[in-house]
Amino acid sequence: MLEGEGKMIRVENLTKVFTSGGIFSKNTIVAVDGVDFEIKKSEILALVGESGSGKSTIGKMMLKLLKPSGGQILLNDKDIYKIKNNKEFYSKVQGIFQDPYSSFNPIFKVDRIFKLIKQSFKKEVSSSEWEGRVEEVLKKVGLNVGDVLNKYIHQLSGGQLQRLLIARALLMDVDVLIADEITSMLDASTRVDVLEALLSLKEIGASILFITHDLSQAYYMSDKIVVLYKGSVVESGSIEKVFSNPMHPYTRMLLDSIPQLDRKWEEDRISVEDFDKSRAAWKEGLCKYIDRCPLADLNCVRPKLKLVEEDHYVACVKM
Amino acid sequence: MKEFMYFAFKNTKFKIGLSILLFFLILATIGPYLSHYKDPLEYVSMSNLPPNKDNWLGTTTFGQDVFTQFVYGLRSTFFIGLFGGGLATIIGLLIGFIAGYKGGWIDEILMMLTNILIVIPTLALLIIIAAYLPYRGIGIQSVIIGLTAWPWTARAVRAQTLSLKSREFVNLAKITALPPLKIVLEEIAPNMMSYVVMVFILQFAGAILAAVGLDFIGLGPTRGISLGLMLQYSVLWNAIQLGIWWWFIPPGLAITMIVSSLYFLNIGLDEIFNPRLREE
């Protein structure tokens, strides 16, 4: 893959608009609004934001599970929606979903997910060799073969199921992995094992989109970060720069909300002022964060991302 | 399966329904071999004989053997239930799966078609179609019934498919590059198996009743015999007024019992498949 060296997956002006309702009352919701980012080889990009900010929607679009309303997703400079062969695409790009319980078909035993991969992508591997590989990846994610194979979903815990899904992704040796809140169902002790497994995938050259709302995990895992608010990027750049010098009021608020072990919650957090930025003031063309921003006034027109220092972009007119 | 059998044989409704159904099924299978006569419409004896040792259920006004008519009629009833109900189930499943899984304009068109068929009164449609066909056999009758009975099944299957396809395991199958047909058949359909079985049972009962209805108003098969035709003839020849009870009671009772047994089976299966309804 010489032509794609260094470049793996790039998202350009990605937009998703959901419409609901019928002919008479059409509602549109802009879930993702012109998002750009790029993940290079052996790089982990954290996509953070609150619930409903469009993180999972972006992940689904990158897995071709949702069609974008606008923009492009380029895998090694090739539009993924132009790759018609699904087997070819999914042998390179894989995902792990949020909810391990609904990721398995309750009718079948859980190890069916491995059999399906072999059928779809690894026909050439012999059965005995395949079993060896499965055992190996299960060990890697801290699972005991006897504990999980030949079981039904209701016989396993959420953590075990989630690790099975990660093992599945590891088996595929993919180029791009979309990991959507994969630790949300895990307890603290297994969380680290799972994150380490992801890091080992990065070491063998995969690009990983790490979707999370946990900023400390994002910091632990990633090289770059993209902060989303209501479908738009408010701040992005190298993880060190964004964490050491957060510029956007929303990012600052997020970083301030990380619980610290050594101190109680302090009152000096940025608070939302009593400022008339109610919904009446919110109109097209103004900053989306206006109703919660302590710095905002009615002159805050919708900002574009701008470079504030090397590898650090912010979308705020006050910066 | 083991679990299913365990709960099935603990459920009284299921057991009652299954026993009655099996009784009639066995009677329909071996009955014609027990009867002394081969042709249910043949003149075999004096007319209007009450049950006796040669004619176990007596004879009709035309001297036909009621038992022979009854067992052959049972056969056609089961045939119509199986084929008419089966056809309706298959069409309903197909349309429901396609509409639910594909979505978009395919869904819109299929659902429009379905809704139109729901709105048209089925009985009127059946009468018109049946009246247009000069010769009608049991087969044609079951096809007509099958072709008009599927809309509710299609709608219900579509709704279930819509809910199942938003589950993550369907997404996981998609990113495993499984083709759509395989996803529907292997991921979605098995999760609806219990529902499909129940739909088939209801369609089976519905087809039997629809056929009896058509027979009774004179639009039944022009050849052969069925339980509905027996009822129609007995009414036409005043069996009720003349007290020839052995002519109309057996088919009437059999239809009622078969349909009731199917409803019992349906309720029983619902309790077996749905853990929340299981009797402790």
TrEMBL record, chain A:
InterPro entries in UniProt: AAA+_ATPase, ABC_transporter-like_ATP-bd, ABC_transporter-like_CS, Oligopep_ABC_C, P-loop_NTPase
Boundaries of every ABC transporter domain copy: 9-255
A Pfam family it matches: ABC_tran
Keywords of this entry: ATP-binding, Nucleotide-binding, Transport
MF terms in GO: ATP binding; ATP hydrolysis activity
GO BP field: peptide transport
Record flagged with keyword Phosphoprotein: no
PROSITE patterns registered for this protein in UniProt: ABC_TRANSPORTER_1, ABC_TRANSPORTER_2
Protein name, as recorded: Peptide/nickel transport system ATP-binding protein
Organism of derivation: Caldanaerobacter subterraneus
Automatic annotation (TrEMBL), chain B:
Subcellular location: Cell membrane
Pfam families: BPD_transp_1 (PF00528), OppC_N (PF12911)
Positions of transmembrane segments: 12-34, 78-101, 113-133, 195-217, 254-273
InterPro entries: BP-dependent_transpt_permease, MetI-like, MetI-like_sf, OppC_N
Name of protein: Peptide/nickel transport system permease protein
Organism: Caldanaerobacter subterraneus
Superkingdom field: Bacteria
Keyword set includes DNA repair: no
